[in-house]
């Protein structure tokens, strides 16, 4: 019995087929071959075409069959993970009325801040655990205000993963966890935050059917099943934002457990059983995927926009052209030749939209202390890795201040955590033990689908086969060294007043 996991990122769509009987992934594919484009018509904006996401999902499913000879008829359930906070507006026929305003788009930050001020900071903190900020609700209001003719065409708002589910099933739905990442969940009441909608002048009718994160949410549409070569009784049984799903894929389900990832953005995500928040909104709290009415589980998340996208940028500018890109392993090898601190070179990775850790204010990106006689490519690469980790640690310090912390952090053996240099910088800067697991967001979504389908009786059973493949402990000497380097880096952050 197979389960399909779909992980819709901003760089690519990853798909994994999980054999629940054997407890292993039998195939994984990625589409497209190169990173998906992010459209930025104005500085601080970021958009993608939802129809292109759907096409890549279809291409990936076709590749499973045509290139890897997976028997698609064995798939009984689908789980969907997706890039968080993005806005997709669809008409009654489930077609997008405009491009998706994705997670790193900062145009709506002012709207969220104004709503926060009008409703009262304390009220928002107690009800939605923070500010509407630059989340999906604020993006929806931006479209209503600035593109009324487009807004009028929209029947529903949803998140990126909900759009993929809608194209598969023909039904418009959204999950409880999804509403929380849209700043549309009232934690105090355990219900849709109608107060936010009312304050923004948005109709509740735009919210599609609300479904739990796990369970039989919908059945694939017969026409879509035929087109994709799937059975007509395939169920969508799980959906979750990419960071809660990443935590799920690492079996981070209990209070005190922590997950991290460094894909396009970098995230540290801690599970807690309390409704905690940062009064300055530098980190955010969402419903974790395994939250229930009887067992509170929230995810406290810090996000750094400029992570893997910075590494991709370095790769491109250090390559001859897009058809002859230098291998990531080569970048890592160059970084490994350089000592901690990169000979004084400092990188500030804040070039992918405003950062939450700075209250959605613009921070200067770029490099400091560059010396043409000293610094080579290896120094640039290592300093970029150090800058990403330092930014993550800045947010981790905030998490610790509100009571969300731990000594062990779990990560998938993927993206930047494939780099021994990056892992070394991370463990010694954060002063934590890093556990690496051979899993992925797509595999986690597939395991989640298996649980939601009812194949497993518990999430613990669904992840009992997950094994730690590497454990990296901090080095006392490097820890001391990196504390000094980090403090120096921190002292030179330049934030727009």
Give a quick summary of the entry.
This protein is of the alpha+beta class and 497 residues long.
Provide structural commentary.
The chain has helices spanning 50-66, 109-119, 121-128, 136-146, 148-151, 160-169, 176-181, 194-200, 222-228, 242-249, 308-317, 328-336, 377-401, 420-430, 441-453, 459-462, 476-491; strands spanning 2-8, 13-19, 24-31, 47-48, 75-82, 88-90, 100-101, 156-158, 173-175, 185-186, 191-192, 209-211, 214-219, 235-241, 258-262, 266-272, 284-287, 298-304, 346-348, 366-368, 408-412, 433-437, 468-472. With 497 residues, the protein is of the alpha+beta class. It folds into 2 domains: 2-249, ATPase, nucleotide binding domain (Nucleotidyltransferase, domain 5), CATH 3.30.420; 308-438 and 467-491, Nucleotidyltransferase, domain 5. The chain has a 7-stranded mixed beta sheet with strand order 17-18-16-15-21-22-23, sandwiched between helices. Strands 3-2-1-5-14-13 form a 6-stranded mixed beta sheet, with helices on both faces. A hairpin with a 4-residue loop joins strand 10 (185-186) and strand 11 (191-192). The longest helix is centred in the last third of the chain and has 25 residues, at 377-401.
